[in-house]
């Protein structure tokens, strides 16, 4: 057993907690910490809590720090964490006045602000990756307006649709995921600064000014909520969890459809692997990785929620250094899964003829026969449904394919159900079970008819343009705020 001694930090505590937190902070939190220092300093000077000369001295100290050396520093226990290391560096360069940078703030509000600034970047990057995926879905859908395929319910053949219609369904749930991510960003992008430990401060600070300088959209107003609230983390984790669960379901579909038994799609060569022993193998492992990574991301997002679950509502380590890497990781996983899904789906080969023949030789169009009997012969739907159902049983018992159905078989079914023939033509039967006509008739809003799918694609192209602009605007705002902050402080160094 290691000799821990009685001096802080204990060896095991440092190895298990402090050193990993220090390494993560250097990689993810150093830049936002320095930005907050600048913004807080500007506010202190503007509020006349520090003179501009004092502010310039502290600013020079911040500027003189060797950031690369700090990034390469190993944890040795001299300082509890990165904050105290940075503070000591500022005081070393600025002298005693450097300690006044911490006027009217605490590690509590500083830490939460750093976490929020880091997370907002991760959320925006995830949104951007999802939007790239959405654009690819629209591009591929446009190529497959007329690609007939069977839709499945309960894993069984249900009704004809198109591959474009399926891809638009994927687009729409991703779009809802993006909306959830935008909402998570809005919740996250509020400033806790000025809350100090939990009750604000007796100094006349300007919380709104600091929020403005750092690109926040406002305040977490209640100072206790500012340091205790963790729902911004929960929302960001839940959005990822929902998104990756849905993406995993699509990967499962595509894996099934790429089997030789289905032969519906083929994954492009750059995204398959071969077997070390079986020469014929062409394994669509990229889809497996999409599914596996999605499941991994769901698990990491759940870790975030579990770490917060049943913790006290206050400043507590469960929501801080130990948790933060998990929220970053689940967002990085989502970003990577969207990126991989983009290239895999964007390069899929769809076996159109196979899909068409499968739809043509399926009884999945029989719904339209029931509909046609009601629509064109004025038979109540439940009776039409019974006739169509009887017709299918007759054909299956005689091992007849849909293409072999004639008016005689329909008459036999009608007589069995209604007790009389319908005297319908072969053309009526052929039209009713034609998969292309089935699709064309489904032109209600949201249906698979090519004209309706084309309308939906154009609508979504316009929507994604607006969303891309919104994402760019958010990135630009953060960048502009950072530039403005540096412009303000640059003038100080010139003046003093």
Fold topology:
Blueprint: H1 11-28, H2 30-46, H3 52-64, H4 67-71, H5 82-94, H6 107-143, E1 148-153, E2 156-162, H7 163-188, H8 207-213, H9 223-228, H10 231-257, E3 265-266, H11 285-308, H12 324-346, E4 349-350, H13 352-360, H14 366-377, H15 381-397, H16 407-418, H17 426-432, H18 435-441, H19 450-495
Antiparallel strand pairs: 1-2, 3-4
Helix pairs in contact: 2-3, 2-8, 2-19, 3-5, 6-7, 6-12, 6-19, 7-10, 10-11, 10-12, 11-12, 14-15, 15-16
Describe the structure.
The protein is 66% helix and 3% strand. The strands form two sheets. A two-stranded antiparallel ribbon has the order 1-2. A two-stranded antiparallel sheet has the order 3-4. α2 (30-46) packs across α8, α10 runs parallel beside α12 (324-346) and α11 (285-308) packs antiparallel against α12 (324-346). The chain is mostly helical and 496 residues long. The two termini are 56 Å apart. The mean pLDDT is 94. The chain folds into three domains: 11-103 and 482-495, no CATH class; 108-358, Fumarase C, Chain A, domain 2 (Up-down Bundle), CATH 1.20.200; 362-441, Ribonucleotide Reductase Protein R1, domain 1.
